[in-house]
Design brief:
Chain lengths: 798, 175, 285
């Protein structure tokens, strides 16, 4: 690889470059999917099931068809022959139960919000009006709401044909766990519930399909234009090369737009049937019912340890709610946690068992962190419990167990090899920023005077696996695709640069960060680089954006593509300079003859010479372009130490976060401003899980949090100021040394907050507060605890 | 269908509208002013915030007929992209990285401008309270608070400079 | 989502609004600021045949001094009420509670009268009107009538207004010197409705509570006057223990709801804690 720039302007990589994306976003000149309105566009509205579970006896759309402005009405039966089934790309076990999932229900509905008919009309008002004239006769069937009940003998079934509500059971074991637990002097058993969440990207889903003869262009608010294109072709049997998928500006995803949705398939089918562009944009209340949900696990954890706090073994028994159907990676999400429940800790034995369970609820799938937040929550809560049990400081108990900085690379009990890390450095920095000792002193003081507002300190020393993913590893896990990423670089005649990436940003700032990489590697000004993405006609291949993978995988593809361009330019430059290639050095975008500094040419001049092609070496094509893919040989492992101070009003149960310190190690950083922003946003979502958010279903399977008035997304007024900092231990699995940052804040913060709340309430005998830690739940925990003088009062930190 | 006349971003529009037409749909679907997005249906998220006669309003909770005879400013009316004539709030959002996906940004910027109209020099807490009606899922709000502080400083400095310039002219005229 | 169709009448005066309302029949609704109504229309939880828009009737926005009382026009916006010098001077409890309603954009359009006529027991202003013994002025083709706040809130989201009646204003007796006020709102996020709210006004004289008005938000299908609290504290010396003991009586006679954000049992508990806190703040202990 060529050397980095050593002269000219300051390096772009590592600088807090302001984002190129912003110019259109701050002025309202954005291309959201719903903004697009080709002439003749028809609008789609969906009639959705009001029942959690019912047989569809009859659908009568006659009156709706007769309404003014209505072009067509389709039921599931109308489309049954062509709509296929929605894909699940991750059959996690050979005998996994995988029910059919028609984009529009035909004979049975299995969650509230499942589409049963659609109206296509000249405008969205007419379409919505006509829904009221579609009559559906349902025969109610029993709702299956509770996972544990769903697995009981004789339980009502979500899919009668499967004979069970269990989709699969997946097991991983390493070491003799039974022995480790049996002999352990300290054994903790805990049951934690990861509540169901609604991802709530600010941009609701939208899809527009424009038919052009035999070809279709589908615009969608998706994270995965490439995967979507392939899956649409597979489901509809429209040939892949006849479908172009465009993800224009996409307003956040957090995993919720890592999906192949029924509405996307149906847009294609309706456009084909009607020969007109068709558009559908969901409303928020519709989306809360039908965008895939996240989390929703019951965790039974058993931890065995020595009296000095050293962990011997960990047993994880999970139930994971699939919802009514398996969507793109539904069954695999909890399994990502299999590799993370051991966290940063050493232990001798480990066992992980997960059963996927069907219920009559919205399907679950990836939500920011996807399996890793759940696992991190489990182990980080247990570490605090272990500290309390042993009367140790929670930091100390972690120190006694974590992989020390001189032990890397380290093969963990769950089978991953952590390439690098420095948990000591991150923790020391966090403790200092937090003022840990002073806060402990204040805590003791408040306890002493029985202040109704108690102070709690929560710790979370987390790691995660990012850079999804080595293709071979995915293959071994039966995932349906690889984990590489693609990039190309083309130098234009004027010396300007177009970068194409297969990663599909939806708010992360790739257009800026990728331009920084290209500017540095090519030695051209940042402003001379344009990054293109999110259109399968422009970026002809890619694996898209999720799992904190873009930079560690896609950034590396770009890094390689740049180097290929430089290599080719070197050949041309040598020819132009009448020098031998090996005598050229490349720095600051300029090739010069070693020892003769004033003899040289810039890569941008080479681009121009390549375009004119008047004087190229023999056999050299007149292009200065390159393609590259990168397939990592390992995951990357960001880590960090997060500390949270929470004030808990024991009279009302209200929790106020007083301070929050996050020290993250995400390896080398391309743009520290973007990295900090990612951490902030991640923290907000993780804190929201701890305190505010929950998708609630009633006993009949009705979602009762369909609006933002009931599903509480925090505002600025509800969140604290964060203190963020970094340590920098480069990843060894890629030349950039980067790890990934998109999910870190979300993964780390949830247990930090709950640990702080429980820490505040230890004197009351409180060992847990279920999430979200609503004021009522906190108050009940205080009330039902053993009280400030009860047996629980000896626990907690020294 | 009642006729309405609305001044939007400096241009007068006259249209016949269905009474139930929401202002935000009038902007987006009838006028093609798609800079103002829609994020919810219960007026919680604030993505659709515009200024109605100078005060912030959620355009999904206003009927187009209610805007008859009024003056509407949307994000599109603030500054012309690429000309360096952005509003100080737009510049501050860019400089402080107060946006990621940008979907909440138009509403957030309009709400923030309204906030500074009420309180030219708000504290961080006042900014957080003042933006309680605008939800962002990406930024954790921290940089939004920074951006509003920065815009506040820039706008106060701009106002002071303008004042000095006027006084300078007056002094010049008096001498 | 999108509202269903309705007829629309823009009234130029209260008289015009009243006759339009009478003409439109039972399924017509008044459109004031629309900040509560619009989400209901969009979710199609409300299907009015007609909306009578009273938003242009400037006379209904007026806030004026009537001597012993303030008359707050039904169409005075929250934004206007919070800043109004008369309200701040003579009905500071209204200003304090109104400042907690929803968010600034909603407060620009939402109205005092609209919030009361909506009669949502989770709304902040009904309890305030009740605590202050406000009188609501209603106008219909049959003339005008005055409805005391105690009689105005009939049931969950149901006021004493007849279908053809327009709320034109609210008469709020002035609080004289010596009164302290406080609105204690307890909610999970800044935007969320109150799980419980306590509207409180206390007049102290020589270290004792001479007069107390306490009303509760979201402790039943209608706002509730905490009469047991008032009776207990009146005449007592102000101390943290007496105020706490008064708070203990807050849930008496209430029938709080159980919903997503809190159970009835929790609300009953909260009412006692929050009432003590509200009394403490109002009595400036």
């Amino acid at each position: 690889m060529s050397a980095p720039a050593t002269e000219g302007p300051a390096p772009e990589i590592g600088s807090p470059r302001r984002r190129s994306e912003d110019a259109r976003l701050v002025t309202g000149r954005t291309r959201w999917t719903d903004n697009l309105q080709p002439a003749g566009t028809l609008h789609v509205a969906y009639l959705r099931s009001p029942y959690a579970h019912a047989a569809i006896a009859r659908v009568d759309a006659g009156r709706a068809r007769d309404r003014p402005g209505v072009v067509a009405v389709f039921t599931g039966a109308d489309l049954a022959a062509e709509q296929g089934g929605l894909p699940c790309a991750w059959p996690v076990t050979e005998d996994m139960k995988h029910p059919d999932h028609p984009p529009m229900a035909v004979t049975e509905v299995r969650y509230v919000g499942e589409p049963v008919a659609c109206v296509v009309a000249r405008d969205r008002y007419a379409a919505v009006d006509a829904l009221e004239d579609v009559d559906v006769d349902y025969t109610a069937l029993p709702a299956v709401v509770d996972m544990e009940e769903a697995l009981a003998e004789g339980a009502d079934l979500v899919h009668a044909g499967l004979g069970t509500n269990r989709s699969y059971t997946w097991v991983y074991k390493n070491g003799d766990l039974d022995a480790a637990i049996r002999d352990a002097p300290v054994v903790l058993e805990r049951r934690y519930v990861q509540q169901r969440l609604i991802p709530t990207a600010m941009e609701p889903r939208a899809v527009l399909c424009v038919p052009e003869g035999d070809d279709f262009t589908l615009y969608s608010a998706t994270q995965i234009p490439h995967i979507l294109r392939l899956m649409l072709a597979t489901v509809t049997e429209i040939p892949e090369h006849r479908i172009r998928v465009v993800a224009p500006d996409v307003g956040g995803g957090f995993g919720s737009k890592l999906q192949v949705y029924g509405e996307e398939v149906l847009a294609l089918l309706l456009a084909r049937r009607l020969g007109h562009p068709v558009k559908w944009t969901e409303s928020r209340s519709e989306g809360n019912m039908t965008v895939h949900h996240g989390r929703d696990q019951i965790q039974r954890l058993t931890l065995g340890a020595d009296r000095d706090g050293r962990i011997r073994g960990l047993k994880v028994d999970l139930l994971a709610d699939m919802g009514a159907y398996l969507m793109l990676v539904t069954p695999g999400v909890p399994l990502l946690g299999a590799f993370m429940f051991n966290g940063i800790y050493k232990m001798d034995a480990y066992s992980f068992t997960c059963s996927g369970v069907f219920t009559t609820k919205t399907p679950t799938d990836a939500y920011r962190g996807a399996g890793r937040p759940e696992a991190t929550f489990g182990i980080e809560r247990l570490m605090d419990e272990l500290a309390a049990e042993l009367g140790l400081d929670p930091i100390e108990v972690r120190r006694r167990n974590w992989i020390t900085r001189d032990e890397f690379p380290y093969e963990t009990v769950s089978g991953l090899t952590y390439d690098s890390g420095d948990y000591e450095a991150a923790t020391d920095k966090a403790l200092e920023l937090f003022g840990y000792d002073a806060l402990r002193a204040e805590q003791a003081e408040r306890r002493g005077r029985r202040d109704p507002v108690q102070l709690g300190l929560g710790v979370s020393t987390f790691t995660e696996m990012c850079g999804l993913a080595p293709s071979r590893v995915l293959g071994s896990l039966a995932y349906g695709a690889g984990g590489w990423e693609y990039a190309s670089v083309r130098m234009l005649p004027s010396g300007k640069v177009e970068v194409v990436t297969g990663a599909s940003a939806h708010g992360q700032g790739h257009e800026t960060a990728w331009a920084q990489i290209a500017a540095d590697r090519l030695g051209v000004p940042f402003d001379d680089v344009k990054v293109l993405h999110g259109d399968t006609a422009v970026a002809h291949k890619g694996m898209d954006t999720y799992g904190s993978r873009s930079l560690a995988v896609g950034g590396m593809a770009l890094y390689s593509a740049c180097d290929k361009v430089v290599d080719k330019a070197r050949t041309i430059a040598a020819h132009l300079l009448e020098a031998a290639e090996q005598d050229l050095e490349f720095a600051g975008g300029r090739f010069s003859v070693r020892g003769v500094r004033d003899e040289g040419t810039t890569i941008q001049e080479v681009a121009q010479a390549t375009f004119t092609a008047h004087d190229l070496p023999d056999g050299i094509e007149p292009t200065l372009d390159s393609d590259a893919t990168f397939d990592p040989d390992n995951f990357s492992f960001p880590h960090g130490t997060h500390l949270c101070a929470a004030e808990v009003d024991t009279e009302t149960g209200m929790v106020r976060l007083r301070s929050y310190v996050a020290v993250d190690d995400v390896g080398k950083v391309v743009n520290p401003m973007i990295v900090e922003g990612q951490v902030h946003g991640g923290l907000a979502q993780g804190i929201a899980q701890a305190l505010y958010e929950e998708a609630v279903y009633d006993a009949e399977g009705n979602l009762t949090t369909t609006t933002m008035a009931d599903y509480l997304v925090p505002s600025a007024a509800d969140l604290p100021e964060f203190t963020t900092d970094r340590t920098e231990t480069p990843a060894t699995s890629n030349a950039l040394g980067v790890k990934g940052v998109g999910e870190a804040g979300t993964i780390a913060s949830t247990p930090a907050v709950v640990n702080a709340i429980v820490d505040a309430l230890r004197p009351f005998g409180v060992k847990d507060v279920p999430m979200p830690c609503t004021p009522e739940r906190v108050w009940r925990a205080v009330r039902d605890g053993t009280g400030p003088d009860g047996p629980g009062s000896t626990g907690g930190a020294r | 269908m009642p006729p309405i006349r609305v001044e939007i971003d400096g241009t007068a529009y006259e249209d016949d509208v269905e009474p139930r037409l929401l202002l935000v749909h009038y902007l987006r679907d009838r006028l093609g002013k798609v800079g103002t997005p829609i994020g919810c249906d219960t007026s919680n998220c604030g993505a659709c915030t515009v200024l109605l006669d100078g005060l912030s309003a959620k355009s999904c909770a206003v009927l187009a007929v209610q805007a008859d005879g009024r003056d509407v400013t949307t994000i599109e009316g603030l500054g012309v992209p690429g000309t360096g004539r952005e509003h100080p709030m737009q510049r501050a959002f860019h400089e402080e990285h107060a946006l990621q996906c940008g979907y909440c940004t138009p509403g957030m910027i309009m709400a923030a401008i309204d906030l500074l109209r009420e309180n030219a020099d708000p504290s961080a807490d006042e900014i957080r309270q003042g933006l309680e009606g605008n939800l962002c899922r990406c930024t954790g709000y921290q940089n939004i608070v920074r951006a509003v502080r920065r815009a506040s400083a820039d706008m106060r400095q701009g106002a002071a400079q303008a004042q000095d310039a006027v006084q300078g002219r007056e002094r010049g005229a008096a001498s | 989502m999108i509202p269903a169709k309705f007829e629309y009448v823009r009234a130029a005066s209260a008289g015009e609004a009243v006759s339009a309302l009478a003409q439109a029949g039972e399924d017509a609704k008044i459109l004031a600021g629309g900040q509560s109504l619009m989400p209901l229309l969009r979710l199609r939880l409300a299907y009015p045949d007609a909306l009578i828009d009273v938003g242009r009737i400037e006379a209904l926005r007026e806030i004026r001094d009537e001597g012993g009382a303030l008359l707050i026009g039904a169409m005075a916006t929250h934004h206007q009420v919070v800043r109004d010098p008369l309200v701040r001077a003579h009905a500071p409890l209204i200003a304090a509670a109104t400042a907690t309603v929803a968010d600034p954009a909603i407060r620009h359009r939402g109205t005092f009268g609209g919030a009361l006529a909506h009669a949502d027991p989770a709304g902040d202003l009904p309890a305030v009107a009740l605590a202050l013994d406000a009188v609501l002025l209603a106008r219909s083709p049959r003339g005008e009538r005055e409805i005391p706040a105690a009689d105005f809130f009939v049931d969950w989201m149901t006021s004493a207004l007849d279908p053809d009646e327009l709320l034109t204003g609210v008469r709020v007796p002035k609080l004289g010197p010596g009164w302290g006020v406080h609105y204690e709102k307890f909610h999970r996020t800044a935007q969320a409705w109150a799980i419980v709210g306590v509207a409180c006004a206390v007049r102290r004289e020589r270290g004792a509570v001479e007069d107390a008005r306490v009303a509760l938000t979201n402790m039943g299908p209608v706002p509730v006057r905490a009469t047991a609290v008032e009776r207990f504290i009146e005449g007592r010396t102000v101390s943290s223990s007496s105020l706490r003991a008064a708070g203990e009586r807050a849930a008496e006679g209430t029938s709080p709801p159980t919903d997503l954000h809190g159970s009835a049992e929790y609300r009953a508990h909260l009412a006692t804690v929050l009432t003590a806190r509200a009394l403490t703040a109002a009595a400036a202990v």
